[in-house]
Amino acid sequence: MVLYGYADASQTGFGSSFITLQGLQIRYGLWGRDISHQSSNFRELRNVADAVEWELVDRFPILLDAVDAVSQLIQAEVSPGLELFLFTDNIVAESAFFRGTSSNPLLFDIILRLKRLELEHSLYLYIVHIAGTCMMAQGTDGLSRGVAWERDNPLSFVPLHLSPCDRDPQLLPWVASWIPPRVLFHPLLAEEWFTIGHGWSGQATTIDGFWYPTPATEVTVIVWHPALAAAEAALEELCLSRHKRPYLRHIFLCPRLFTHAWHKRLFKFADMVFYLSSRFLPGVWTSAQHEPVIVGIFLPLLNRPPWCAKGTPPVLAIQHRLRTAFATRDSNLYLVLSDVWSCFCP
């Protein structure tokens, strides 16, 4: 059983909304002086904890009914699975919860309170950071200021089941525009992660009857664009493929959502990482997407020290030019992106 909710807090008030089969349930109010004078990070995380606890008690029977259903599954010896995705526009709330601790005593007490709720109610809680513009478009941002609202489909603002190329069909043509024509690239489907993604396209047998994979020699660049909910698994397969086939080249595309599961690994293993902000390019990844796309480039491993191109002067120089081009909206962005492939494309 999966439930979804939004939580947002301002200096003077708070609000949260939960999506149920019966419709949208909202909760909002004003802070007292003991809370309104605290930091914004404290107010955001406090509102998240209050929203979860409020639902788990008896104010709204949304999560309470779900907990009862899980209890019945436990008694029937069926594996329960109650998950709650709670979206907030405060990145500290997301990182502190998934890190499990904080140097701030007040934030640590709230984290401990959330972890206790998970244990007491057999709950899997995911706190996901979203852009502030997304929170405003969804409507929960107005609840903290006393503005009631209603939306037809609140989940359309956080499509965790869609890949970035499904959300914007112009994204792949944009990638193809800065890859040289002589360089072949293959956007992976989910079922191709374990075949073409690992550098083989088929299978064959030797004269002795032993099975072996057939290398996919025609693929030069592999484009990974997983759905947000599967980004962690896709990146794990990408890293495994890179060790198995060090000559392959990879591009990883994913919006900046649910990053706690894969963000650290991407920056650790990718040779270059940059952000494509919404509205940066006309017709590509428009403002309706809200969060930027994170683009990770994996170059082939080297056969001599330093063994990988990450951190080498040519790569650092191009990455600096990329960041400058994005920061200044340089018209030569495509030229800079094309120079990326000159580092490793023969």
Protein architecture, described:
- With 346 residues, this protein is an alpha/beta fold.
- It has 2 domains: 2-157, 2-Layer Sandwich (Nucleotidyltransferase, domain 5), CATH 3.30.420; 164-342, no CATH class.
- It is built from 13 helices and 12 strands.
- A 5-stranded mixed sheet has the order 3-2-1-4-5. Strands 6-9-10-12-11 form a 5-stranded mixed sheet. A two-stranded antiparallel ribbon has the order 7-8.
Quick recap:
With 346 residues, the protein is α/β, with parallel strands linked by helices. The chain has 13 helices and 12 strands. The protein folds into 2 domains: 2-157, 2-Layer Sandwich (Nucleotidyltransferase, domain 5), CATH 3.30.420.10; 164-342, no CATH class.
Task: Please give the structural blueprint.
Blueprint: E1 2-9, E2 13-20, E3 23-30, H1 33-36, H2 40-56, H3 62-75, E4 82-88, H4 91-99, H5 105-120, E5 123-129, H6 132-138, H7 140-143, H8 164-167, H9 171-177, E6 185-187, E7 200-205, E8 211-215, E9 221-224, H10 231-244, E10 249-255, H11 263-269, E11 272-276, E12 293-298, H12 313-328, H13 333-342
Parallel strand pairs: 1-4, 4-5, 6-9, 9-10
Antiparallel strand pairs: 1-2, 2-3, 7-8, 10-12, 11-12
Helix pairs in contact: 2-5, 12-13
